[in-house]
Amino acid sequence: MMRQLKILDFAIASLRRRKGKSLSIVVVFAFTVAALSSVLLLTHALRREATQLLAGAPDLVVQRVVAGRHDLIPMDYQTDIEKIPGVRRVTPRLWGYYYDSLTGANFTLLGVSGAPDGLTMLAGRLPAGPNECAIGSGVAEARAITTEDELYLISQDNLGVGFTVVGVFSANSTLLTHDLIILEKQALQKFFAFPPDRTTDLAVEVYNPQEVDMVAQKIKRIHPDARPITHGEIVRTYDAVFNWRSGMLLSIFSVALVAFCILAWDKATGLSAEERREIGILKALGWDTGDVLLLKFWEGTVIALTAFLLGITAALLHVFWLGAPLLVMVVKGWSVLFPQFQLVPYIDLQQLFILAFMTIVPYLVSTVVPCWRAAVTDPDSVMRG
Amino acid sequence: MIRLEQVGKIYHPGKPDQVVAVDEVSLEISRGGVTVLKGPSGSGKTSLLAMIGCMSRPTRGQIVFDGREISRLPERFLTDIRRRTFGFIFQQFHLLADLTVEENVLLPLYPQAVGYAEMKRRAEAVLAPLGLAAKLRRRAGLLSGGEQQRVAVARALIGDPEIIIADEPTAHLDSTLAAELLMLLEGLLSAGRTLIIATHDPLVFNHRMVTRLVSLRDGRVQEDQSA
Amino acid sequence: MILHPGILALLLGALLVALLMLYACIIGFSVLRHWDRTSYSRRQLELERRTYLISTMVNYALGFQALSLLLFIYTVDSLHQLFIGAMCATGTLNANPVGWYVLLVKIPVFFLAWLWVIVNHYDLQVEDSPLVRSKYAALFILLPLVVLDGWWQFRYFTGLDPQIITSCCGSLFSSGDGGFASSMAALPVVPMIWLFYLWSLLLILLVLPALKFRAAVLRYLLALAALLLLPVGLASVISFISIYIYEMPTHHCPFDLLQAGYHFIGYPLYLALFGSVLCGLIPGLMRVLQIFAPGLGRVFAGRERFWLLTTLVFLLLLLGLVSRPLLFGPFTLQAYL
Fold first, then answer.
1. Could you list the residue range(s) of the whole structural domain that residue A70 is in?
2. Cβ of C2 and A247 within 8 Å?
């Protein structure tokens, strides 16, 4: 143990004496780690956000599919589903997408009636009449409007309709409400020219979440054209997408990792004359090959750990403080109205472990042979000159 | 104590640049006294010294140390014997210029099971008699020639070895420094140590402390005189 | 394939470990062919130097294997959300049966590699390294296992299809259906408790006299008992240890113990189990090797006590961790026995 500590001590001193070379490796390594960790941190944080949001999603959403495409669902499906044992409540949801040619953005229009559904993040109020609307902050920004302004949209019948903004959603609800426009239900029905006996989909609550799959099967049996989507399926799909995206990015960045390993191998192989002399002296003074290998191991580990810590810190700052400007493009997709949300800083042990494994392990492996070659210097090399 | 039996050392055997550095040398070195290996450049003194000091293995023959055959021991065992028994003073001292005096002197002790406190104590114990106690923290590269030479001697003594090996110790020194070094080396004898020196400097092999003179030429022993 | 970062890390690790071992074997082959302790040649010197490289590579490979065992469990556990019906690692492993083979090969590789490193360590302290040939020949046994591990991991992860409905530990480890796992869960609890404690006691009763007496037969028996502790211990975890920790008579999963919800109790538990097995094997193994390499006996004699005491410590830790919920936990099995 004492020997390990002393050689570690010497290794650190040795690295300090070769500041230039050590720093160059640390910087490149840290950059590689930062790139890989930014990917993992970003996707993980997004996944957590999504999971938290999805916690409020209904147990089951029932849509109708006609010729493989999503169609409006008849209201009497509601009655049929309510009769299924285990179903607590079925709520018809009326909503749709609206392409705004003015801004090039897609808005989500949602119809509400009666008492609001626990929406507390609102400055103002929900629409009470057919000519009122509440909008999300993204809509407000895109159209440069606020409370008491008019929002003009083109209806299904190609007529311009004006809605007075009576409420704007606050910034901290932005993931849910960024592109949202809430209209009074009948106003929405009229706007999209929805048939009165149809709705967009049905939100189903069950008493026992373990029974959701069974209820879904029953719905499918009663109405073969219905597509029940369980909460679990949504969560799994998001998970898979996040895995896929982060995995893709990691695979791409692994090229950087390979390049770094080649650099590391090259640096380790290219010992300067001074370094060779130093090892020769150590061997002459009673260090054996095992001791020099240990020295090289500790040098490598110190570099790797320093770079790792620096890289992780840089990634944390990049993702959670700066909002990952370099990576967010990939995650955004085509979205114009991408919400400016603040991700909650979170890092778990498993992530750190994976990152350490993916970066430190290849580095140590790429330096094994060069370190050994250096360590087997003949002890009498300093005598022979 | 150390017995060499028909020892030979060949570099690059079987190749066009083959060099027979040592050719069937038999020698016995007992404890105590100063043995000088004398000869011109290329006579095999350094190679012989390296083998005696367990730094390299012979290509043929045997080396027996205190009754134990050591010529074919694996490196880690040779290193162990070398650490415990020998202290080396090199031709060019080979100090690490960026390390302090104390760090240079302690280099041999890093891989050994000696604690930090003990290491510090030993460093002070070897440096003080050599007048370097005040220069512990000075970078070795900033020392004068004479000071460097004393640091090299201190480093050789840190493990309290019974045999000191010096390879051409006066090669890069002027006559004043050379005389100083020889005085230092003579001082080491009082502790019952054995000195083995390889040199072609008359100042060394004519010194009063020399008890045995072995002359080498072309890798062979020409003459072996006891003083 | 699911491009989960953990999977990428594992496959990368498996590739690197296989490469390290392959390279070690290639160099080891030249050592096997040309090793001659009595030779003065440059080649012998070069071979000796290469033994350092091989030792370093195998040490690294072992270290990475140990980490990858942990990472495998972690990853497999975190993937369970992608599979309908999977509640933990067991569900994920069932989604592609090759997953169990991966575990089945990782555990022996882990033990064999550790034994190699320890034997190598002592062999290098003997002047003539008597076990050189045997050690490097043993690498040729480790190599195919390591490659198999990597290959099966690759097949497992590429064969995972998130749409598959899989049974979870709940239905897998229940006593109901057939299959190996459920038969382990169905092992009668009280006899299993007796077997576990008696076996542990047997081990302690072999360690204590081994500390005092030098008889080889004690060490051989200890090694045998330690080896059998592994299946007994694992069966005990599934059969009764898990249910006491989970405080649920139907929850037998051996992986949930590693989760935060149970304070990661699985880690010290498995560490104690694996540690007892490994340390218990060493004295017996070294005695066997001493028959072929007497020099090893002189070197190992001073260290044997350490291994015996460590075995004892791990055993006591294991017993402590198992007994605590049994004796002091709020859960009792009276109604279910």
1. 59-229
2. yes
pLDDT score at C171: 46
pLDDT of residue C165: 47
Question: Quick one: A205 and A269 in the same domain?
Answer: no
Choosing from A229, A257, A285, the residue where a domain stops is A229
Nearest neighbour of C8 by CB, restricted to A250, A365, A372: A250
C-alpha distances in angstroms, A305 versus A308, A311, A356? 5, 10, 9
Q: What percent of chain A has pLDDT over 90?
A: 21
Q: How many domains does chain A have?
A: 2
Is C56 in Cβ contact with A350 (below 8 Å)?
no
C41 vs B contacts (CB less than 8 Å): 13
Minimum-distance CB partner of A289 among C6, C52, C74: C52
Tens digit of pLDDT for each residue in B48-94?
999 998 888 888 899 999 888 888 888 888 888 998 899 999 888 88
Residue C268, pLDDT score? 94
Q: Which of C49, C64, C82 sits opposite A289 (nearest CB)?
A: C49
Chain A residues whose CB is inside 8 A of the C2 CB are 240, 243-244, 247
Residues of chain A contacting residue C19, judged by C-beta atoms under 8 Å apart:
365
Q: Write the residue in C39, C41, C129 that is nearest to B74 by C-beta.
A: C129
CB pair distance less than 8 Å for A291 and B111 = yes
Residue A68 shares a structural domain with residue A189 = yes
Residues on chain C touching A294 (C-beta within 8 angstroms):
none
Residue B58 to residue C40, Cβ atoms within 8 A:
yes
Residue A9 has pLDDT above 70, yes or no: yes
